[in-house]
Prior knowledge:
Layout (H helix, E strand, L loop, with lengths): L1 H16 L16 H18 L5 H22 L6 H18 L2 E3 L1 H7 L4 H5 L5 E3 L11 E5 L6 E4 H18 L27
Parallel strand pairs: 1-2
Antiparallel strand pairs: 3-4
Helix pairs in contact: 1-7, 2-3, 3-4, 4-7
Amino acid sequence: MSLAVVVLVGAVLAGVAVGGSWRRLASLPLQRLELVVLAVLAQAGGAVVGLLGVADESTSYVVGLAVSAALALAFCFRNARVAGVPLVTLGLVLNAVVVGANGAMPVSIVAAYHARVPIVAIAAGTDARHEIAGDGTALPWLGDVVPVPLPLRPEVVSAGDILVVAGLAELLVLGMLPGGVVVRWRRREEHSDGEEGPQAQGA
């Protein structure tokens, strides 16, 4: 997404401007990063299977997206205490819900017009990942309804997309700060003597 690139680059610049360093991102307390890799492979695999004609393109896309979403959500829930991850999780859930309800991501014609995004392929039914939002669309407000008229790569995004990008930006900025709080809430551990143990916090 063009919006994601712009926002994340801005987040990195903001982090540097307030004294942060991108090198600190290597020490973020993230677990099971392999789930992210598998999620990307699952979504790409679904698209490739459809393009090769092995299975119906629309079906293979939805299946690949469902598997990808499940893996991504597993990663997010595993790291839910890390700043930014809850927003990413909510965004992924919203996108998965609207795609699951419609079989593709519904796109608002009005939003596409304002963003100057061509919808010829979507209208012709040759884009298995998207469909034109209409009277029969379920949960249309969760679809691609927000125009982003960027100069080079205009697009239309969903509320879920915005939450995902916002969460990643939060994670980047806080992760770059010296002593930045990466963990959003603290977990108390009980010792055998009944006293509260050390509280987990981000570095």
